[in-house]
Amino acid sequence: MLIQAENLSRIYKTPRAASNWQERFTQLLQPQYDENKSVSEVSFDIARGECVALVGPNGAGKSTTIKMLTGILAPSSGRVSVAGFDPMRQRQDYVKRIGVVFGQRSQLWQDLPVRDSFAILQALFDVPDAVYQQQLKLFRADGGMDEFWDRPARTLSLGQRMLCEIAAAFLHAPEVVFLDEPTIGLDLEMKSRMRTLIRKLNQEAGTTVLITSHDVGDIERLTRRLLLIDHGTLRFDGSLSDFRAHAGDGRWWAARVDASQIAAANEVLAAHPAALAVRSHGDWLEIARHDDALPFADLVKTLAPFTVHEIKPVEQSFEDLLHGFYVGKQLRSDVVEDVTV
Amino acid sequence: MKHRLKACTALAWGNARIVATDKRGRAILTLGYLLGMWLLYYLWQALYAGNDRHAGMSFATALLHVVTAQTLFAILQAFGDWRLAREIRSGEVATALTQPVSLPLRHAALSLGRVLAQAAYFLPAFGVFLLWAGLRLTPSSWLLAIASIMLSFVLLFCIDFVVGLAGFIATDLWGITASKDVVVQFLGGALIPLAFLPAGVQAALYWLPFAHFFNTPVAYLTGQSSDITPLLIQAVWAVLFVLAAHMASRIIQRKLVIFGA
Amino acid sequence: MTFATAYLRMARADAAAKMENRADFGLIMLGVIATSLASMLTVYFMLGASGTVMGWSRGEIIFMQGFVFTIFAPQSSCFNAMYWVEVWLKNGNFTRFYTRPGHPLLLLMLEKFHPQGFICLFTGLAYCVFGLWNTPYLTDWLFWLKFAIMLPFAAIVLLSINMMAVSSCFWFGESFAMQVTVGKLTDMSRYPLELFPKIARYAFMALPLAGIVWWPSLALLRDANVWSTIALMGLIAAGSLYALHWQWKLGMRHWAGAGG
Prior knowledge:
heterotrimer, C: mainly alpha, 13 helices, about 75% helix, about 0% strand
């Protein structure tokens, strides 16, 4: 295994505020801290060549996990090993093997032309000329980096800058690349260009990629495997299709009912003995799909009195599934009754 | 008018609170100030060890002049040049121009807030130092002294505002602001009393605005002077400086129109 | 290819970029010249033509001021980025100090290079020469040899002290107050420390602000033993660097601990 995390935990200590002079005095001698577990007992393995998404709501512990994997933050307990290195202890040798992009942070020299920033990084990371040229070729041709190759970094647009950041992370042909929110704030075209590049580097060069993102498109298009963190604990580790199964299949029937009859149809469906969730979306009336409790034939029969123009099955989007997971309402067909829409 | 006064009070008060809430910074600054004054005492004492008069001043007079001037500088230094230059560079100045208070007035209010907050923690320390050193401020008229300090604030603020225009041409602001700070201190009589300079230079600085940054208010505060003429010269310069700040403000607006911020 | 290559590439590119922006460059020059001139003239007029302070002449004190400007040059050229650390800690760009190979202090050097240090160096040397005008030292090559040996050590001590003040932002968030306070102390350490009461003198020695200019001056202009002073300065320089190394090590741990 290339990346191994075992029972990884990180506790943040914040000094406790004193409310009176006596406390202030005792704290001077014996400081009191509030402990806050940001990541707790997280374990996972990632094999060489995988592209894995680390997802979770804001403040779930994603960035803390990435920081522990990249040697920025020491774990409070547990063990990390990446390519046989201890990221914190062997930092200087370790960082030559990895590439890191933090979405809103910069690797570049703001006042220098992009070309010079890369020349400096080449020397710093000790990248042989052949590798350097080869790694850059992809970004200069496919990514369009040539357009702003001679401009100072501070004059670049966000998209151009992110392209440079990602190119810089891949410059020394690292074994693993950690991407923390690499597409944040980018427009659709730039996002897709970025995803194509990352996929290419993952699939063709075999670089292992660990990516965090709030953009479901990044996850669906780039990765097969998902690590889901919430409140500092690992809630799910598996393939995207497993996640769908785990989070409930979330399938619905949608019927387009004549506008004047929607309310009445809604009432009838809601009164059905199967007691399935019902919701409306404009002209469409949706009911949770449960093939035992409400077979298709029954559904048609129930809707018979109304003017139905169309009936189709709908799959819940991945985004909805994730959202459902975050808010703690896993839309499994057997618990779907709990959902009030 | 009433609205403007209210807005300026709010800006000044807000900035004063920002400065005053950094308790640790305030403590370190006050301590550093006292330490600096304490060392300054011995420096001047050593200077007077051989003979008891230099440039017509006794040890007590010279020391009182230097520490008062340094205190005034510490209090009146409001970093308005940095503030304006940064706003220009970041484009924030365009937002500021949409507010219903003129740009120089807004910055003057912010600077005033900072100055008042700095006064609140440097003045007590100054008092402590004077007690320790056995010195006393004996102005012949507090009215003249306070009027002169207020005019100093106006002069220094206007310089800050004009220097802040450097934000249009320079990315690195240290050079211009550091130059301004030392020129104001040295030619203003905050590093050494102007009496130590050659007579011709002194006369020139007296008619130019320089002597009125610190030398004039300090002379009133320490009782070296009770003549109203320096105050009048200071006032004339203050009027001219305010006009200069207005011109600077016009330049900013014109440039913003041209460059589109 | 190593750090040295990377540094040369950065220095060349950054110097070129800086020279291109004429206004910036001109204003920085103005700053260096104005600040040094003001402190020199202060001493010049404070002491008057015949003035001495505790046996130190005006020329000698001007030499001491010049010495400080000279040893400030490396910091001014190579470590100017130190004033950005606070900003980078706040906006998170500091993470690159963890994800690049090399000692963080070397990485800090790699951030910026400013040719203003040369102006600082020349101004400083000019004041040293001016201070010693009409003294036998001026033509004594052995004096200048000792001077040249002491410069780097003194420069390291000054750099470490300033860096430690700035790096207090790892813990405090802001380092402005610390910089102002330490700046006051370094300003005062340019004068003969004999002026100050015993407790201040010991504090200057312990900090070790006395290593910036006081001990070198005693050896160069008075009868303190030169070679033992040089040895002592070497020790102090090594000690300050080591302390700085540890401050950064702890600081980098602490910052990440605060969440970044």
